[in-house]
Each structure stands twice: as C-alpha cells, then as structure tokens.
C-alpha cells in the first residue's frame, strides 16, 4: 500500500511540474504577442547575448584580477585597511581600463592569399594577409593572428585611415611533407597585460599541400614497367586483336566478326575468336606500418619512391592502382595521387607487405606488376612470403629503403628486390634491373 501511495504521489508531482511548465510556456507565448512586451523580450534577449559575449572576452588572468580587486576593496574598506583598499581600487581600475581597450567596432575587410596551394618539399611557399578599413573614419591599431599548422603567426596592425590597407607577407615552412592548415585570420584587440581579449574571425581555413619530392624515371628504367603491355594470354574473347580460331555463330555474337568466306564454304555462319591481349596494370603498394621502417626518414623516402613510380605509370597512361597497408588510394590524376600521398600518416597493427600482397591478389584483377615499397625492417622472409601470395603471372618488385645498406638488386623467391638508400638512387637501381 505504501508503495502504491508513493507511486501515486510521484505521478502527481510529475504531472504538476509538467502542467506548471506548460502554463509558463503558454503565458510566455501569449505575452510575446503583445507588441510592447515582444520588443522588451527581444531587447532582454539581445542584452543577455551581448553580456555573454563580453564575458567571453575576459581571460583567466582577468577574472583573477577582478575577483582579487573586489575582495581587497570590500575587505580593506570594512576593516579600515587603507593599503588593502587602495590595492583593490587599483585592480578594479586596471580591469576596467583593460575592458576599454576592447570597445569599438572592427570595420575590416580581410583576405588571405596563398602564393601556391601545392608545393614540393623544400620549395618556397608564401602567404599574404591584406586588411582594409571599410569605415568612414580612422580605426585604432589592433593585432592580427592566424594559425599556420602547429604554429601561430601574429603581427601588429597599425591604425588605418579611411579606406586604408595594410599587407603582411610571411613564409610558410615546407621542410616536410604535410597538409598545412593556414588560418583562419583573426583580428584581436586587448590590453597589454592580457586581461581582456576580443577577437573576430574574418577568413576560412586554407590548405597548403606540401607534396613529397619525386624523381623522373629514365626511359630505360621506365621500360621496366613495360612487362606485359600488349602481350596475348590464353583467355579467349569475342573481340580483340590477336586472331585465334573460327567457331559457329551463337545468337548475340557481333555480326561484324562473321567470316563470310568460311560461312559460304561450310553452309553455316562462322565467327572469329580472338586471344585476349593484356594491358599493363601496375599496382604500387606502400606500407605505412610504423614497424616496417627504422625511422621517419625511411618512410619519407618510401613515400617519394611510391609517388615516383605512380607518376611514371600515369605518364605512360597505364592502368594504376595505389594502395597502402591500410587502404586504397584514389590515383586517377597526378594531383590526386600526390594529394593522397601527402595526407598519409604512419599506422600500426599487423598490416605489412604480406597483407598488401593478399590485397593485390584479392582486389586487383588483371594486375601485371606489383611493386611493394617498404622500409629496412622488413625481412627477406616477409618479402618471400609476399611474393608467394601474389597470383601466378604477376611480376613482383620490392623497393626496400635502407639508408645503411648498399644500393643494388637481389632476388628473394619470385620477388626482385631493389634496395635504395636515397630517392635519387631509384632511377639508377631500376636501370640495372633492365640489363
């Protein structure tokens, strides 16, 4: 009985609260329909928003200074402690003065410009910020800040006359492969002590792609990729270039392939059969498993090598598939390939060269050549296992980056291993494979 009574009491309380909330909501809605009340509510809402915005300008040091000043003021006045009272007055005065630094409009038109949206590692990249005063009067000095990657760029903006402009140029470091987020540009007003800070954002974020460095493979080295271009296979097709034999016509066959002379001699429609020719399909598989590399420098050389091989295949208009130990990278154009390689980061897990070889065998049909790119910590046994996983008929090449080994060629199982110490050695090492 007591349980039922408690449940009824709780239900009654919940119903009462809901009814009260509904009544207040309906009362507010009815009041908002009155013109005078509606304007007052709008002004109150605007004042609350403005107050919240101002409160966000105050930093942690500002709140500490204000709280300390108020406490010192009250305690000093209550105890008759003149020194403490003076300290409180000074702190409150300093806070109010700092707040005055942020007042006023910021009538700016700001634009952010990059000299190039894509550069190669080591190339110069510049950015410029142009600030224009759009008001009809002089504006006070301010500060311009903007993030550039993990760093912060800041410069003082002088006072600008009506219609005046100020341009600031700065260099962006491009020592390593990366996608650098530049911006947004913010104008900041605040006091010298950093108690209060008011900022406004003016631009969107711009991305600068710092592409990996690549090398052009010489013609002899490029010929290393011409392994099966145009070679015939034993697969029979109804339309190709290499003639195989004649057979009887089957409904649905292309009548353009009817051999009329043989049809007249045999009294039956005879059509031509062809041997399917194979177009070179190059697969570049790059391991981005951190365990496959001794250090970050090896990884960067491997990424550059994969990019160089992929660009060579694209230039020769070959079918190209680029994958890593963790995903497949779209590579329909030069820009798309380099952009995706630029975004690559190291991964972890069991993925490695054997996993990539399985992905080639499972997902890439009609592959004629698989190029596995990895670091020095990949053992010959792993390369042998990767070659054993690849389909029969797929030519296997491994580009192994080892900065402590001599460049050269070796064979591990069915895999030809090209060891390189630096990116510049890749064309010469592939040339040796053609001898």
Write up this protein.
This protein is of the alpha/beta class. The chain folds into four domains: 41-101, no CATH class; 108-211, Sandwich (Immunoglobulin-like); 231-278, no CATH class; 280-433, von Willebrand factor, type A domain (Rossmann fold), CATH 3.40.50. It is 38% helix and 28% strand. The chain has eleven helices and 20 strands. Strands 16-15-14-17-18-20-19 form a seven-stranded mixed sheet, with helices on both faces. A hairpin with a 3-residue loop joins strand 15 (319-324) and strand 16. It is elongated and about 125 Å long. It starts with a helix and ends with a helix.
Strand content: 25-35%
Rg (CA only): 36 Å
Determine the N-to-C terminus distance.
98 Å
Strand order of the largest sheet: 16-15-14-17-18-20-19
Oligomer: single chain
Q: Give the biggest sheet.
A: 7 strands, mixed
- Give the CATH H-level superfamily of the largest domain: von Willebrand factor, type A domain
Poorly predicted runs are 1-16, 220-243
Shape, please? Answer: elongated
CATH architecture of the largest domain: 3-Layer(aba) Sandwich
């Amino acid at each position: 009985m007591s349980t039922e009574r408690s449940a009824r009491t709780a239900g009654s309380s919940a119903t009462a609260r809901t009814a009260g909330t509904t009544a207040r909501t309906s009362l507010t809605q009815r009041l908002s329909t009155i013109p005078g009340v509606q304007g007052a509510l709008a002004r109150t809402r605007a004042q609350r928003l403005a107050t919240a915005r101002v409160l966000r300008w105050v930093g942690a040091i500002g709140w500490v200074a204000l709280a300390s000043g108020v406490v010192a003021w009250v305690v000093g006045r209550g105890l008759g402690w003149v020194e403490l009272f003076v300290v409180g007055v000074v702190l409150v005065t300093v806070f109010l003065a700092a707040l005055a630094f942020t007042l006023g409009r910021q009538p700016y038109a700001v634009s952010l410009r990059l000299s190039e949206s894509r550069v190669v590692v080591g190339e110069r990249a510049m950015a410029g910020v142009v600030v224009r005063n759009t008001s009809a009067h002089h504006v006070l000095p301010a500060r311009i800040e903007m993030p550039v990657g993990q760093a912060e760029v800041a410069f003082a903006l002088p006072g600008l006359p009506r219609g005046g402009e100020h341009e600031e140029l700065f260099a962006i470091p491009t020592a390593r492969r990366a996608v650098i987020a530049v911006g947004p540009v913010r104008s900041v007003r605040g006091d010298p002590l950093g108690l209060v800070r008011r900022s406004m954002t003016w631009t969107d974020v711009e991305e600068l792609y710092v592409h990996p460095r690549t090398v052009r493979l010489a013609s002899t080295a490029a010929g290393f990729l011409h392994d099966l271009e145009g070679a015939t296979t034993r697969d029979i097709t109804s339309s190709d270039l290499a003639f195989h034999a004649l057979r009887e016509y089957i409904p649905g066959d292309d009548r353009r392939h009817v051999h009329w002379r043989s049809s007249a001699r045999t009294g039956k429609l005879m059509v031509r059969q062809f041997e399917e020719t194979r177009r070179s399909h190059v697969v570049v598989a790059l391991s981005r498993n951190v365990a496959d590399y001794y250090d970050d420098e090896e990884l960067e050389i491997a990424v550059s090598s994969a990019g160089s091989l992929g660009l060579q295949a694209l230039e020769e208009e070959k079918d190209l598939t680029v994958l890593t130990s963790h995903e497949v990278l779209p590579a329909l154009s030069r820009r798309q390939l380099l952009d995706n390689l630029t975004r690559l980061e190291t991964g972890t897990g069991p993925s490695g060269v054997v996993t990539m070889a399985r992905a080639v065998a499972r997902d890439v049909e009609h592959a004629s050549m698989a190029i596995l790119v990895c670091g020095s910590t990949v053992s010959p046994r792993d390369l042998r296992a990767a070659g054993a996983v690849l389909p029969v008929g797929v030519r296997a090449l491994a580009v192994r980056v080892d900065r402590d080994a001599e460049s050269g060629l070796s064979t591990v199982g069915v895999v030809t291993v090209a060891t390189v110490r630096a990116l510049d050695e890749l064309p010469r090492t592939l040339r040796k494979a053609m001898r």
